[in-house]
User: Fold these one by one.
Assistant:
Number 1:
Amino acid sequence: MPTLTEQREQIFDSFRKWGYLEADLDPLGLARRLSIPELEGDSEEHHAARSLYCGTIGVEFAHIQDAARRRWIQDRIEAPAPAPDRARLLERLVSAEVFEQFIQSRYPGAKRFSLEGSTSLIPFLDETIEAAALHGCRHVILGMSHRGRLNVILHTAGRQAAELFAGFEDVDPRSVLGAGDVKYHRGATGDFRARNGADVHVHVVSNPSHLEFVDPVVVGRAYAKQLRAGASGRQQVWPIVLHGDGAFAGQGVTAETLNLGSLRAYSVGGTLHVIVNNLIAFTTLPGDLQASSFATDVARRAPIPIFHVNGEDIDAVARVAQLAAEYRATFASDVVVDLVGYRRYGHSEVDDPTITQPVLYRHIKEHPVAWKTYAERAGLDAEPVVKAARDGFAAQQKEAGKFAKIPSMRKLPGYWAPFFGGRYKPEFEVSTPVAAEELRAVGDLLTKYPAGFHVHPKVKKLLDQRLEMSRGQRPVDYGMAEAMAFATLLRQGIPLRLTGQDSRRGTFNQRHASLVDTETEEHYLALEHIGTGEAWCEIFNSPLSEAAVLGFEYGVSRDYPEALVLWEAQFGDFANGAQVLIDQFIAAGEDKWGLLSGLVMLLPHGYEGQGPEHSSARIERYLHLAARDNFQICQPSDAAQYFHLLRRQALRKWRKPLVVFTPKSMLRHPDASSPIEAFTRTHFRPVQREHEVAGASRILICTGKIGHELRAERKRIGDATTAIVFLDQMYPFPERDLAEALAQHPDAHEIVWVQEEPANMGALFFVLPRLERLAGGKAVRSVKRSASATPATGSAKAHEMEQQTLLTLAFSLGKD
Ligand SMILES: Cc1ncc(C[n+]2csc(CCOP(=O)(O)OP(=O)(O)O)c2C)c(N)n1
């Protein structure tokens, strides 16, 4: 027979595990409450446990493996709730509600994505940041989408209502022609004055329409800011991400981002995820949005607590805010808060929800606003608070008319001061060669490892070769060129971060940034011991994600402009798993938001008979996105070009994303290796000319591996009249360099663009019109695979035949 205490514990344990399923979470009282057999019973213990676990707070924590963490939550839920500051909570709630109504009445028809029905978000954030400030928080990086954004910018980021109202006034459209973004996407920075006197700097991150894709960017930005802050970084910088319930449940990038939470390469000591749960997405109800009862279920795979709270019980909302903040501060863990409310009007202000949810909206129409209910329950007089809010906004509206154009509510941190974007100018170039002595020195450092470290014999051989490369005793391959670029930059004080799937060793066994002890599996990263001053180095294997990890690294690059931040795709083909990040942030961030990034994307590319999904990094996609010098698109044709390209990227102050198509089979190929002099003397050349053939009658222009194959073919057939030019930088298009390369062969009668990709892919569409402009009337032709729905054939034999046909055609096309 269990003792009475044991019986009590059993009952309480059931409620700790299942109680949230019966909790009273829906302010409208419409959601069907589950009935869990394990919770049935009418004993005193049942009542006691039910009042704790099935009230307006429901906590999911039984899935957390760590008993100490479960105990922490249990102790707090089972202890009396701390007394809330009701006057303050009411004031925040009223202000949030009145703000929305004020815009509705003064700017009818304008889209603002009202927060009404979920305005408890504002007191929630208030209490969260208050609690965070007590734990040392001084920076909040806040990501969110459309819903309630203006309200958050006002009440949480501390901007003036006048600035927001100005966004609704007519402005001169010429200031944003062809660029800019809508008001509910733009970022904002401000200060939150906490009651303990601390100023917490709040930054609302600019985001695109694409829901949830800002999540990893927020976390990456927080990571970079924490690195800057040093040992107390995690205490000082807190990421908070707000989600819609539909988006949180539906978008895969949320799951990817949650997975980053506890990985060493990505951990920020906990992100607070807050679901502004209005139980609807546009016109779709939860039953069609998610497989389970809760939008939060995707988070249950992580060992993190999920707090559900009825958004109309403002005291409970405040309590959950404090619990969430304290949990993050105590365990450096992610926390999910599900703030359940409703949506008072349509998806946006121009949308009528009674067409799709007529019954629900009849209920909503009758439902009193949250501040009225709260004031009544708390015995507070809300009228003076409402009046003060209205008067305040009316005064702010008068101020709004004074702005000549939409005010920028954002301020870039000081570390961006030395860097700039805009159009390319040759004067931005810097010197990238490195003295031979320095290369010898880094060669020594890169090939050394601690005494007693057992290196794999194959790796030992590679290190011996690398030592010889650094001394000019053998040509330098890509792997060593990259290591030397990284090492020389680190020694110049440039921090470095590289992540990607299997990037430490390198997918093609080429990098070996980290040596693995054959006896202990301990790792040794020589590059970590090379930097000077502030130059830290991080090289990590990423999880098997593209979107979240690319978003994260973009975020890091946004807050560490002086670092070289690189993300590597396993094969370039897989980068389209992160297409939203590429389209919405990397290509468009500067145009939409004036925000720069020096992120490098390394995309292995090349037709080597490996099938449709291991051949093409889709050069065409990047070229389609290229305009106004928004990024750089390059394919270095040899190791030294790669070295100078990386160094140029880090050393120039012109901050632009760099897309690099990197080699696979050419990684160690002698034709693409470079003599040491190419590292000590030259710089990156957008157009690589050769000097073998002078006064050619035909010029082949190409980029990447095919160029080396063309050279081999030319040798094989003994052709002495065809010149081969490599286009190592496709964008910004190096028109002048190419014109000079063409001018080298004034008698050439034909210019041929040769590419491995099918006719509907590759750089063809981009290069051809430009070549025609430069050709001065000469014939411009092209050699490519036939247009195809897939990038490459699945048959290695067919590939060989196709490749040989390309080479044959390249040397015969146009010849009589
Ligand atoms: C990736 C993506 N797909 C579709 C949309 C179009 N869209 C905009 S808002 C919305 C509904 C969002 O619902 P929810 O996440 O619950 O947030 P709510 O608007 O209810 O606050 C949809 C489908 C989008 N913005 N992003």
Note: Residues 86-106 form the longest helix (21 residues).
Number 2:
Amino acid sequence: MSDTSDANPSLPPPPGPGSRPSLDDLRTLRDGPHAFLLQIARQYGDIVRYPVGPLAVYLVVHPDGVKHVLQDHAKNYSKDTFQYNLLSSITGRGLLTSDGDFWLRQRRLAQPAFHRQRIAGFAGLMTAYAEAMLVRWEGFAARGEPIDVAADMMHLALQIVGKALFSIEIGSAADELAQATLVVLDHIVGRARTFGMVPQWLPTPGNLRYRKALAVLENAVNATIAARRRDPGNAADLLAMLMAARDPDTGEGTPVPEAQRSGMTDRQLRDEMMTILIAGHETVASALAWTWYLLATDPAAEAKLHAELAAILGGRAPGVDDLPDLRYTQAVFEEALRLYPPAWIITRKALTDDEIGGYRVPANALVVASPYVTHRQAVFWPDPEAFDPDRFSEARVAGRPRFAYYPFGGGPRLCIGDQFAMTEAKLVIATVAQRCRLTPVPGHPIAVEPGVTLRPKHGLLMRIEMRDVASQA
Ligand code: HEM
């Protein structure tokens, strides 16, 4: 990798397919863009250049290239991409989509709210919501009725993020908000695929549905901010921290007297809340849904998980102190994130000419890193399609480069919610797996839908079989 961002102009462009797709390319494109990216990575190697209309996209596959883009030369790779600009029509200038000094200021303000100790304080409510879901599941188990695990995980994750971060009780509104989230995200994915050909202002049925769903989300967020401005109460959630946060410097390191330090405007609060609602629940939910599916396909892994839970918890509810001991539970979730990374594609724009892996990447190029693709490189992941949580044993992790695995990204833009997500996932898996087993409904189709996350295309219909908790004590 180059140490500077000015590449030698005589460097060759990366290899890749021409502008006329082959039959193989067309076949994999039909399976989805994630399958296409995997196919061209297999064909062309560590970095691939492929045309999309009149543009060229640079897919970075090798961990060294990913590290270069996300970490070592992160300053040369901005979020000013078509994909992030579309997302910002929902999240405004929230943490996920903003860049530069503005982003840095917001990140500093938000970071303390995601401190490990703060997240530990949410453990009780994470487990409590999972238990409340199990009460409902008992009825389904008794009636032998299947549930859509993907929908229930969305519902659960939304309740958790709503309560932990904004102290909102998303009870009956959870379905409406979860549905609105799916509508707005699907809409922008559709726009990304068609390169925004239908203008947003046209009153097409799709645009109208999008506006209505966005209004549902915005109204919920704005009402929460307004209520909190009227009566801050004693909430100790992210919203309270964001409202109380004051910028200690001007952004150039110049300290500002306490009384003059600025806080966030309502608009900034709105953007950060929308960002966290969007980034903080569908991601965890889709990975949890795949976790249940993968466990059901591997009785040996499921038995190993049950054995760990019996040994550590013996039937009692998991707490934050149990988390370090739930190593296999963590490995199960990490392996689900490897196979079905919710953020399956990460985009950047190259600001100046650069060199990656001996190839030239020109200024303004759209650079793509795909955890879905890198996580399937056989050099780092033998038998890559197999579900094998033991890949995440300490010794095996130590033998892989850092960026062979990056479900949460890396470098300065590393997911701010990674610890939140891991804590939530481990507690939910431990709570649910102690109490029941899930088995897929025979004949229900399983396919990947590559939207903003990788969700099960037809939902995930599974039957519930309650387990005897007393026998685990
Ligand atoms: C399994 C769950 C999750 C996955 C796989 C995931 C993945 C990611 C990835 C890959 C990025 C970096 C994107 C990039 O570099 O372009 C990111 C950023 C972000 N995530 Fe997550 N995320 C998850 C859960 C969460 C949760 C629970 C929250 C909040 C409660 C959250 C909030 C954010 C925010 C605010 C950013 C932007 C951070 C910044 O740029 O400063 N995420 N996430």
Note: The chain is about 50% helix and 10% strand.
